[in-house]
Give the backbone structure.
Amino acid sequence: MQPTRRKFFQLGAGGVAATVLGFDVRKAYAQAQELKIARTTETRSLCPYCAVACGVIIHTLGDKAKNVTPQVVHVEGDPDHPTNRGTLCPKGSSLYQDILNDRRVVKPQVRRPGSDHWEDISWDRAIEEVARHIKKTRDETFVEKDAQGRTVNRLESIGFIGGCTDTNEFNYLAVKSMRSLGVCYLENQARV
Ligand code: SF4
């Protein structure tokens, strides 16, 4: 076969090259993809970037032995997820780079009043400090009655916002907890 220049660009370089050389590289590409995830563990999760909350499958390599550090090798859309049915937008498709990233924050951090930097703290300390701040703020600002003397029992000085990876169960507990404190301003980005 002697393709014309126009035909070459119409068919695409890969397709023509495969035809000219007499073999179809598509099968080789499919095989390579299969090998990449052949021995991985699949974990279903949600893309954390936006309110669509697309389902993803995270492929992790490692035989779960104690001396083996699991390694994420691939992230793809979940074909069984009702929201996206396997598709991902460019942001979701780059999740692999989000997981394997030296700049990813994996510990709680706090920036103290007047400080110009964030410091790492333990989870126990973070929970203790958040609880202390909530208690202090609530004690100081809780509104029992409005200007007309009507009972309102509300806390306007604390807001709560959730993320798209929060489950329905988590959100149920969050709303119950916040309402019990009197919090009026609570929101979640997800519309699922
Ligand atoms: S894949 Fe794209 S559309 Fe889906 S949740 Fe992530 S950012 Fe949103």
